[in-house]
Amino acid sequence: MARIIGAIATSHVPSIGGAIAKGQQKDPYWKPFFDAFDPVHEWLDRNKPDVIVVIYNDHGLTYFLDKMPTFGVGAADSYTNADEGWGLPVRPPYKGDSELSWHIIDNVMAEDFDLVTCQEMQVDHAFVVPMQLLWPDGGAKPIPAVPITINSIQHPLPRPERCYKFGQAIGRAIESFPRDCKVALLATGGLSHQLDGTRAGFINKEFDLWCMDKIVNDPEALAKLSTKEIIEKAGSQGVEVMCWIAMRGAMHGLVSAAFSKYHIPVSNTGGAVMIFDNQPAMALAAE
Amino acid sequence: MDDHFNIPGTPVFTGAQARKGYALNKMCFSFNEGDNRKAFLADEEAYMDKYQLNSAQKQAIRNRNVLELIAAGGNIYYLAKFAGIFGLGVQDVGAQQTGMSIEDFKEMLVAHGH
Q1: How many domains does chain A have?
Q2: What is the number of structural domains in chain B?
Q3: CA distance A34 to A38
């Protein structure tokens, strides 16, 4: 059976991709953020996940406002990246795992989460930048991925509590997957930032640090927030924390933070990187 | 701003905004493709006509004014693709909306960490 061994959460700001393309990882501005990925690489090397489920939000690459899925699941064996309009180099395609995708789709739908299934899906910077951070060029190749999107562009957004329950359903689905494999989760987005309006540039360190504590020890406190409260406290794009909430919901066992780093600013954003270990509930019961 | 969130200085992209800004956002979505960015630069007025922008949207585009674009229904993620045509990023966009110089805006971001 598949096991969820843990998760990584990170900001996905496009300019991180720009810094990678320009080789600026050691520049004083960027170094504190990129250095946070040394422990991530060690964690991946030590735990060797076989597949990664990536929970993120699209920003107008694969979806437009003509049709806006609340929850979308990639169901392909390959995902392409493409031009998003601001000069980031287009990345080579990423491998999928359609068997796991369809298992998640079947099981999550059976729990009344009515998904959009995507047999073709372009993955934007919110997928590609974190994958580059986890598996930089020149090192090990990225493992196959299942992309899952949560609408964070067009309101009404799914309520944070709904995202948490969606994550729980994803977790149960993964743990019932009959293939013997190790699954890692990757949540991307956040933390606090606001790009639009006269409050643009808003960052809330206190709230971000609170989130990074609660996501480990009391995720239901995060899930109980309303969308409006998140926007007030984390800025209009801070709603991306929904992806973190869903990721946390997917881990049913004993969850601990193996690493945690917060750095301001990453572009306009409170930059956060975390690693979570998950001892699955079944393993706990067996002990 | 016609949204029910009513958070000062904070536009929220509700259904009303999505409906109002559809043509503008659709044009900006087209800027994912390099050929479309070139076509816009070659004849901006013709490109706006093709996407049936209304007069407020056209004027906001001509003015390169982000707050006006948002008031006309623009969504920041699609507007970022418009800004990208001119090599501008989210910090330039933030500086314009807050009336700050780019240097002051960047300093403010750094100061959030203290």
Answers
A1: 1
A2: 1
A3: 8
